[in-house]
Amino acid sequence: MKKPTIQSLIGAALALGVLVAGPAAAAEEFITVPTDDSAMSARQLVSNACSRCHGVSGNGISISPLFPVLAAQQETYIETQLKQLRQRERGDPHARAFMWGISKGLSDSQIEGVAQYFSSQPARPSPQPRDAALAAKGKEIYENPLQLESGAVNCANCHGLQGQGKSKQAIPRLAGQHPDYLTLQVHYYRANLRNNAIMNQVSAALTEDQIKAVVTYVASLSGIAPPGNASP
Question: Which of 34, 121, 132, 148 is the most exposed place for a label (fewest CB within 10 A)?
């Protein structure tokens, strides 16, 4: 089977947004989430509403790079994103096509339960870099300051030396993520389809070659902070 290119993934994602006739219509037909907190445990909720895209066994490891790996993701990041999706504060195609509808019926306690569930799942083994030389270039970009209009930004300072993310700041884990998914999100930030002041600037400052190098590198990281460098 021919491997999809990032261009085809972006095209597919944008097509999803076009196909949604009304707010989150696709998701409303896709799955219904009960609003009664007692109707489902977090595990049942994951099985009913999340497993089709984020791992059929409920392990949070998606097969398609169109959907993120959630296993071992920072709990606070998952919780923050679900609440933003529920409020329709994210306008990227997948958010509109699926997550707006799925998240709208979730209570705070259900969101917290799902976030805790996925964050506690074993991490996906990080893939080996597709290109060692490219990953080396990505490492240099990731660990060194990137000059922006607002000042210098260091990717590793935010996401951790091993891509583990930060809990208190709700900064996502990047280690073990699908490289093509990461690339897609960078393009969403560049197009202002996802809003984050720093990431909007970072994505605009990086060339396509630099994006490819960085995502190749960070996806291969272990997600385990070096001793003495654990991210809070």
Answer: 132
199 burial class (0-12, 13-18, 19+ CB within 10 angstroms)?
middle
Q: Say how far apart CA 33 and CA 101 lie, in whole Å.
A: 9
Which pTM does this prediction carry?
0.85
Q: How many residues in total does the chain contain?
A: 232
Whose CA is closest to 223, among 113, 117, 116, 127?
127
Q: What are the chain's domains? A: 6-119 (1.10.760.10), 132-219 (1.10.760.10)
HSE-up of residue 114 (Cα within 13 Å, Cβ side): 30
Any idea which residue has 């909720």 for tokens? 45
